[in-house]
Structures are given as structure tokens and as C-alpha cells.
Amino acid sequence: MAGMSSLVRIVNAGVPGSQDRVDVVLRDGVVASVGPAGTVSASDSTMQTKAHTTSLEYATNAIASGSVSIPTSDAAPADETTIDADGLWVIPGLWDCHTHFTQWAKTLGRLDLINARSAAEAMDMLRRHLDERRAADTLDPDAFVVGMRFRHSLWADDEQPTLAAIDAVTGEQPVALSSADMHCGWVNSAAARRLGVHVDESGLVGELEWFNAYTAFDKAPGAAEETDRLLREAEQDAASKGVVGIRDYEMAENIDTWINRFAAGINGLRVDAGVYPERLRAAI
Q1: 17, 152: one domain
Q2: Domain range spanning residue 9?
């Protein structure tokens, strides 16, 4: 409802490198005050502290590297939670300083092969995935099935990808699997024809050709809406792990991309936008 907010009190938390304990108040997910333990009572919905100066000092030294913004609200909180953090710690929010955030977000909605220990295991996972989607009537025979994060460099020499193996599992369903580092892909014959790429008996598509081919998935009908949904899920997942900011190294116009995302409400993280040399002049 409009005008309502959430209030979370974290009381008696430890601070790394100090014997002090603090109370932290968050309103709508934003740090509102930090003060010595005992500052905030369970019934204190006004978020007042005993000493505003002390609160800012704690916030500066223990929680952030700068001053704390203290939002105000005239409305009563819609939801109040008090967490007793005795034996626990509060630390500054985490930053992931090397992400390809769009690609990582898409792992939340695609077949994840990170745990496959061989080509055979990867194909077993793919077979189950296709069977489940057929049973759920969500498998479009004309749409790519995309998998992510296989690590064939860790597989034995006799457990490597082959075109025959992926064709046997997939038939004419176009399937494209991306390696964990995004520097190659493993595709079946149907996908190779649609992507216009050449594959040998391994079924692997090399780096530069794969980079170009991979962008075709983003042009499929409904791809933009799916990406936005997965980005929002990825932001929530990052926040649940204590991540408040990322440095994004997608091979894209990251500055424009994130300006547009923030405008669309995909703004749950702070973002440093990486720029590749060939895009530097345009970014400037």
C-alpha cells in the first residue's frame, strides 16, 4: 500500500575488528541508523538513537566508507522485524567485482550443466531437461533450448563433447550449450544450421564464432521479456547473498544498458559498468 514501509532492527551485532556491538535499523532495505547496542528498543518505530553523532560514527567506520543516508517516513511500518544478532556480525555490503551479469542471470532460467563431470553426464542432464519440458508442454520445436556452464576442460580425454552424442539426444530440436567461461559452445546439427556456424565431429564452436552466434538467442520472440524477468531474479538472489554492487563486464554497451534498466526499475544493485577497448570512444 502507498505510504507504508518495512522496518528491520538488527540488535546486538558484532563489528569485525572491534569489541563493540551495535544496533542497526533498516527501513525499506536502506540503512537508517547504526548505534551502540541498546540504542534501539523493540518498540522503537521512530528509529531515534541516543546520540546521532555516535550513530553516524559507527555507520561510517563499521558499515560503510561514507556517511549514512537516513530516510524518513511519516507512515507506520507495514512490517516490523527484530533480529537478535548476538554471536553474529554485520559487515559492509559485498561487491562482485567481475560479473557478466546478463549471462549469469540467464543461468537461473536455463539448463545448468555446471555439475556435469563428463559429456555423458551432460547429455543425461539434457535428456531429462527435454523430457520434463515435453511433459510440461513447454518445448517449442522451433525454439532454441539453451544450456549453460559445462566445463569440458575438466573432463577426461575420452569424455569430451561430440556432435554425434548431442544429436542422438536432441534430434531436430535446436540445442546450444555454452561453456562456463562463455568462450565456446557445444551445438547439435539443427542449431548449427540455424546459427550458420560450422561444426566438426566435436560439435564445438570456437570463441569468436560463438560470441557472434550466441547473440542470436537474444533476438528470439519473447527474449527481452524473459531477460528482464531473470535480471530481477538475479538481483534478488545477489541481495540474499549480501551482494549490494557489481562490476559488469558484459560484451555490450553497458552504460546505456544499465541506464535503461534502472529506468525500468531493475535497480536493486549498484553497478560499475565495464567498457572494452573497442567501445571506449563511444562510451566517452
Answers
A1: no
A2: 5-90
